[in-house]
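Hey, quick one: can you model this chain's 3D structure?
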Amino acid sequence: MSSTFSKETFVRDVFNSIAPYYDLTNSLVSFGRHHYWRRTLIELSDISQGATVLDLCCGTGLITLELAEKVGTWGKVVGVDFSEEMLRVARKNRDESKFGPNIQFIAADALNLPFASDTFDCAVVGYGLRNVADLQRTLLEIKRVIKPRASLACLELAHPYLPVFKHLYYLYLNNLVPFIGQLLTGNRPAYQYLNESIRNYPDQHRITELFSELGFINSQCYELTFGIASIHIGSKPD
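Sure thing. Here's the predicted structure for all 238 residues.
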């Protein structure tokens, strides 16, 4: 069995198992900061009214809903995720929102998106890049489906840069986050994976370099909350 297939299967099973508790747990373990990070992502993505936007690794659709508000009545947002249980929650959230009519959710693999090249005016990824089976291939696939001059905006948990704060943060990730996950979901391993996935993900400076290496232009990195999270922006050239 390939390592790519193994990671994909494992991560899908993790998110299927925690989907009903995902948003509540995120709010608790981030002390509500993920709302600020999400709003900042939307602001930096520079999405215009009427745009067609891809929300990759859309999860429960919270970012998708805010994107739909941003593009307005004449725009469209396509949310893609490979976890059917996360999409089940996302569709419920969509049905309860006034912005639902211009949202479409699709179950698909980030490594093989079911869209023609040069389809989207913008792409957004929230907390998805560290979970994909092949980071470079995913970024190239996003680059393929966005239009020339279109931007990609990625929000991800990152690596704090203050030494003492970084040490305390990793202690929190390693001990308290799995404990909170166990209390809320009964699934401690899922939140142990959260710790491992953050530690194993390249630091934000390496991601900036990777954007440039893969052909994105005007690559920028915005560090949030002392580097706990980061947002990377890049554009597809003409």
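One thing worth noting: The mean pLDDT is 94.
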